[in-house]
Amino acid sequence: MSCMTDDWTALPDPKPLAGAPDARSGTGQDGDSQALEQHFWAVIETMVLAGLVVDASGQVLLCSDYLLALTGWQRHEVVGSSWLELFIPAGDRQALSERLRAAVAQGLSSLHHETEILTRSGDRRLIAWNTTVLTSATGLVQRFTSIGQDVTDQRQVVQDWPCCRLKPVPDHLKDMLRVDTERRQTEQALVSANQQMQAFIDNSPALVSIFDANGRYRWVNQATAAQFGLRPEEVVGRSFADLLPPPVCRVFMERVQQIVATQTPLTVKDTLHLGGEQRVFSSVLFPVSIEADGTLVLGAVATDITPLAEAQEALCRQAEEERLIRTITQHIHQSLEVEQILQTTVTEVRQFLQTDRVLIYRFNSDLSGTMVVEAVLPPWDATLGLTVEDTCFLTRPDLAHRYRRGHTHHIDNVAEADIDPCYRALLTRFQVRANLVVPINCGGNLWGLLCAHHCRGPRHWQPKERALLAQLADQVAIALQQSQLLAQTRALAQQETLLNNIISAISDSLELETLLQRTATEMLPTFRASRGLVILCQATDPVLVHTNAASTPGFDSLQGQVIPIEGNPHAQRVLAEEQPVVVDDVRAEPMLLPNLALAQKLSIGAILAVSIRYRGVVKGILSVHQCPGPRCWSEVEIKLIKRLADHLAIAIHQAELYAQAQLELAERKRLEAQLRYDASHDRLTGLPNRTLFLERLSEALEQLHRHCENHTPLAPPTLNRLPDLCCDRQFALLFLDLDRFKVINDSLGHAMGDRLLQVVAQRLQTCLRPADVAARLGGDEFVVLLTDLSDAAVAVTMAQRIHAILEGPVLLEGHEVFIHASIGIALSATTYTDPNQVLRDADIAMYKAKGSNREYAIFDAPMHTLVMQQMELENDLRRALERVELRLYYQPIVNLATGTMQGFEALVRWQHPRRGLVPPLDFIPIAENTGLITTLDLWTLNEACRQLSCWHQELPHSHPLTVSVNLSGKQFMRPDLIQQIDAALSRHHLQGHHLKVEITESVLIQNAPMAIDLLKQLRQRHIQICMDDFGTGYSSLSYLHRFPIDVLKIDKSFITNLQRSGPGTGDCEIVKAIISLATDLHLAVVAEGIETAEQAVYLQAHQCQGGQGYYFSQPLSVEDATAFIA
User: Is the dihedral of CA 594, 598, 604, 610 positive or negative?
Assistant: First the structure.
């Protein structure tokens, strides 16, 4: 071991070398050389040899376990220390240093020598060393690797040999000699292994090189030299600037400077052009050693990863192709605007192909084409809106035929391609250097072309690119077909509107002039024509006079134009035939030759005309003109003009038969009566509507006032007593509202809902006396006016009768439906001055009946007071939201199996400044009716998330806890619900699994498709959905499995009755059925309202997972809940 200085001990302290190669860890080496060196050290340890690696400054880099055991030093005491000062006696250091320096000067790569070393205790051991010198390409020493064997005992035997030479050689001496022989063989094997490792690196396909901080090569392996077309010795001594292009050289030197500054390895990926092709390399650059003059020597190992990079690029391109197809497909599915779809297509394709222009070229009838959409990069010319006549389509009919069969066409280099000169000139005109064209075939016809232009130079179009454009062209064709279907649908709707307008006009008025002019005018947009004409005439008339006419701007309407019939074959044919006469091109129609000059003078290009006939008698001609060019009339348009002519024939006939006006007048009166009836009656049920009913109620109120003028005024009834009637002109108003009608209407459909309302109306009429009046106010609200009452109890009897008859089942297309109504009764009183007051009080009583779950309720004064109080409470509630008077209480939800708490349900409470704590039942219904429930729900969501976040921060063991928040139907159906939930979770740093959303089953079935979509979005966020109060609503298995819910919450009414009912009774069986149902559907179950240990034991025994109720805890304030968690 040596160095390149005069005196080893005079060397400066070695600099720290971050990232220096470690023979044990393999840092800075490739995998093969690392494995070889690890094997090298394993051999040393196995053979019980002393191993030592030192750098050029004499510092120890590595040492073997045997050397540490022999000397008694610890590894951390040896590594980094000077080996001479640590191991070599002071008197031997100078001689050993000179010997090693001489070996290096002679160019020896290995050296055998024996040296005494000092142990930690001061003993001396004689070691036979074999040292290998590792030098750089310039001859500088980099490190020494020494393998040694302890020969102290052997040398002692040799020294003692003369005194025992006359004796036989002892066996233990033979063993020592054998061991010495084996040692020398091992040394030779290690030298050979070291040489193999050097050969391995030199012949590795990886590019391995060593260079200094100035970018000058000191050593390279064969693979590195081959990249420059040189031999390794020809590369050594040259710099980066000598062998690399300037841009690459600058990058390499920047990396060298970075390593010099940081003393840490650097991993990079480069794309280089070598040997005429592009290759991708993954390289590791690392510091190797520091020379005596402070120069840092670096190493690099580069691996060719071109196949991997190409595979990754292919995957990325495939993903981008899929994204492009998905984007276009989504636009087609989400939008009916074909122009937007086409523009999106060319924009996305241009971006994906990284080409200069992508456009869609639509064919015209003469095989010319118009650029309808385009995406182009500057500075290349825009072509949008240009019409191009490609003569290739005229001279080569097979070209269009090939496109119709789906063939694509591509040119990689326009300048060198074997194409028609006219086509080359066309492409050159638009700066095209490479061209890719795929056809767009729509409905079996060649609609247009999808073209990609590369203008900056030639380009080789890959097969995948051509296939992708063909696939996208198919998607564009689908969009075009959808657009055509939409246009056809709109055209049909417009045609039907025109017919309906004409029919309505015929029915509403006998003003024939107005009708004919309206027909001529409204035909223009429907037929997309230039001129509409109505001609009144007879078959024997000598001329045709344009009685009514209309035209688009730029064309004369020809109002009053006289056209002779004689010598006019076209007019004669129209009058003679019943079916329309079609002329697509006046220039090519033989029967128009006598009048072609006149047709051209009037700018007529195409004509669609039909005679107006009533029972075979000609009344006139209906005609539309296309100006100034030809037009292909469709079958739909031909049928439409015939139908219009038939309707006009009726109108004309009515005008001619004015003598029959009396008959028509009678019919008109009948229609007017029907209109009056319709104005005062409900169209669905035939019952009087609100207007007529209020008239009847007003009449009853007036009669009451007249007949009771001489009697004591009647006061409203009380809860305990019906009033005594003062006369036989008393009346009562019954206000009916159908319970759960919305559920039936939403689940079975509006048609079934309408049919149910008709059944209710029919049944109501069967209950009434002849003088009574039943009416429908709207929706599911009905009212009944009972007149001429002598006893107020008649109203109660009638209410009971109505309940009885309505409760009978109704069969709606196989569905058996049961109806229940809430009825409010308002009895007549002289204090009423307006019929709406009676209606108001009956409405109040109805809500009272509905709220108390009774069949009926009779209005009294306290009800009105209660309504006023509720109104006041509503106003207070609005202010409460602004003043933050609401509070959240938290009721624990407990795991019944373990008794541990799973989370809380957040329950809102109102701390009113005057009323104190207002129960939820007093203000939640008001919030729902007024729409404040959405604001209340949003506040509850944010406050619950905020509090849970606080608990997570203050009580680390509370992280598994969740919070359940109730959402109303209005809040659940808000379009921005998901955004609100995301914002709440993000604002308070919560994950989706921390939140549970509770909704009732009635909310879900109000709009099942929308609900399913919302629930799926919540589940994607890991937010659990709980169906609250399960068993009290619709509870249909036909929909339950459709909704992605997680938890069923059994309503507390079933839990309360568990003990009262006993095992085997209805409520027990319902609870067991719900738990069994949830188990089958893989849903969790939580029981609400658990108040006793017996209930908890029963539920736990039947595998109910969770529960909440006063048995565990009442709803807790934030402070109490915090203590409960702690």
Answer: negative
Architecture of the domain delimited by 886-1125: Alpha-Beta Barrel (3.20)
DSSP-assigned states of every residue in 389-425: --HHHHH-HHHHHHHHTT--EEES-TTTS---HHHHH
pLDDT per residue as tens digits for the range 488-537: 777 677 767 777 777 776 666 667 788 888 888 888 888 889 999 998 88
- Distance between CA 789 and CA 796 in Å, rounded? 12
Q: 995 forms bridges with which residues in the sheet?
A: 963
Cα(1057)–Cα(490) distance, rounded to whole angstroms?
61
Q: In whole numbers, what is the pLDDT of the chain averaged over residues? A: 82
Of the candidates 1055, 1030, 1053, the residue with the CA atom closest to the CA atom of residue 1043: 1030
**What's the pTM value of the predicted model, to 2 decimals?**
0.36
Contact 213, 256 (CB under 8 A): yes
688-694+724-807+820-859 CATH choice from 3.40.1350.10, 3.10.150.10, 3.90.1150.10, 3.30.70.270: 3.30.70.270
CATH architecture of 322-488: 2-Layer Sandwich (3.30)
Q: Give the pLDDT confidence score for residue 20 in this predicted structure.
A: 32
| Distant-in-sequence contacts of 422-429, Cβ < 8 A, 24+ apart | 422/391, 422/392, 422/395, 423/390, 423/392, 426/388, 426/390
243 is written with which tokens?
Answer: 């062998």
The rounded distance, in Å, linking the Cα atoms of 1050 and 1069 is 13
Beta-bridge partners for 302: 207, 283
Reported for 690-693, long-range contacts at CB under 8 A and 24+ positions apart, including other chains, are 690/775, 690/777, 690/778, 692/775, 693/773, 693/775, 693/777, 693/783, 693/785
Q: What percent of the residues of the chain are helix, what percent strand, and what percent coil, each to the nearest 5?
A: 50, 25, 30
- State phi, psi for 116 to the nearest 5 degrees: -80, 140
Q: What is the mean pLDDT of residues 587-606?
A: 89
Q: At 52, is the secondary structure helix, strand, or coil?
A: strand
The domain ranges of the chain are: 8-201, 204-304, 322-488, 509-661, 688-694+724-807+820-859, 886-1125
Dihedral class, residue 58 (left if φ above 0, else alpha if ψ from -120 to 50, else beta)? left
Give, in order, the Cα–Cα distances in Å from 1075 to each of 1030, 1053, 1062, 1071, 1102. 11, 15, 17, 6, 8
Q: Among residues 899, 913, 994, 914, which one has the least CA distance to residue 946? A: 994
Structure tokens at 965: 């928040």
The alpha carbon of residue 906 and the mean position of all alpha carbons in its chain are separated, in whole angstroms, by: 30
CATH topology assigned to domain 204-304: Beta-Lactamase (3.30.450)
Please report, as a single letter, which amino acid is at residue 787. T
CA distance to 357, 537, 611, per residue, from 616 (Å): 62, 14, 10
Picking from 583, 667, 687, the residue whose alpha carbon sits closest to that of residue 625 is 583
d(CA 780, CA 803): 15
DSSP state of 355: -
Cα torsion 555, 557, 563, 569 to 10°: value is 60
Q: Which of 550, 695, 537, 679 is nearest to 618 (CA)?
A: 537
| CA–CA gap between residue 512 and residue 648 (Å, rounded) | 9
Q: At what angle do helices 1066-1080 and 1052-1061 cross, to 10 degrees?
A: 130
Phi, psi for 319 (deg, rounded to 5): -65, -40
Report yes or no: 510 and 659 within 8 Å, Cβ to Cβ. no
Q: Using pLDDT thresholds of 50, 70 and 90, give the confidence band for residue 773.
A: very high
pLDDT-derived band at 4, boundaries 50, 70, 90: very low
Is the bond into 628 cis (omega within 30 degrees of 0)?
yes
Contact (CB, 8 A) for 423 and 414: no
